[in-house]
Amino acid sequence: MPMNWPPASTTKADRIAKLVAHWTSDGFDTLEIVRKLLDLPVHPISIWAGDRWSYRSVHPISIWAGDNVAASAFEVPVYRRSEGIAIASLDWFLSGAFSSSPSDPHRVDAVKLQSITEIDLLCAFQVDEHTNRLICARGRTQLLNRLGAACAEYRNMLDFLLAHPSTTRSNSNPLIPVSALWGVVIDGLSSVWPPTRTSLNGIPMSDMWPYRALATIVGIDPSDASTDDAKLAQIVVPFKKLSQWLTYSLMEPITHYLTAELSGIESMTGLAEYRNGGLFSDCGVLSLGVLQDQSTRNAKHAKADEDPDSPKRTSTPKRRKYESASVDANLFVANVPLLHPHDDVVVELRR
Fold this sequence. Notes:
By secondary structure, the chain is mainly α. The chain contains 16 helices and nine strands.
């Protein structure tokens, strides 16, 4: 699983170690260095690149690799997808764009995040409307602004965790329950998510979706506006992909650079996302069943697509080879329905 903070695996150079050495030479203590490292994965998690966007790093590999490097290290590589987001975000962070303090440019603070504009994002990610498009730049900018509103509390996360009542000591090192870290991500960043998502008690729940099969079991009509939140909570399936991804990413600097330990990691689960889902599908663990009302669903979603306020459906899968799968590839592709992200079939497959 690729962590959504700038990884050392993008090149042979260890970017994080270089940054830590730089900050240490500038006189920052261990706690402040870890705070800076915890700043790194938060804003990349809010940006999704799509499959056509790419990023050419503003720094050649030699910047990270040191003096004894081959000539190829002076090339400026091109990155895509999650890797591209990580490197672009790191370059943006190093430029001081997220800090209000000229004397301490390598940090993220609330004032700067709330002042980020769509133009800032487009420039930082080298976006071109015709040749290098970034999906939903305006929405991503608004999410960064909302992150700024929550950032003041978030930047105290490390101090909060160290002073948390459930944090103990193990061999002189802090032993932090992962549930405390999870609480910071879920509660501290709850205001970041779009208000159009499933909400409980007026709080957007991000990656949680009502599941009609559960509604039938408990006898609830989710479309009934009078249904209270306590009942609605009974039929909502939580996935929390981005929240879990962020939590996993935050574990690294806490355990590696702070020499702290995290307990209860086994309570975390795998991510409900396309990489894991594709693996299960390709290996035959999951398969899409025949939908009796497929034509009705397709007609309904086609009509919904005409509504500008309606969530966009998932795209029709491209033809793929299923050499080891016990399905007819042509029949499979021809019969895949057009579904919205909140459709029961999507929720069930992710579950």
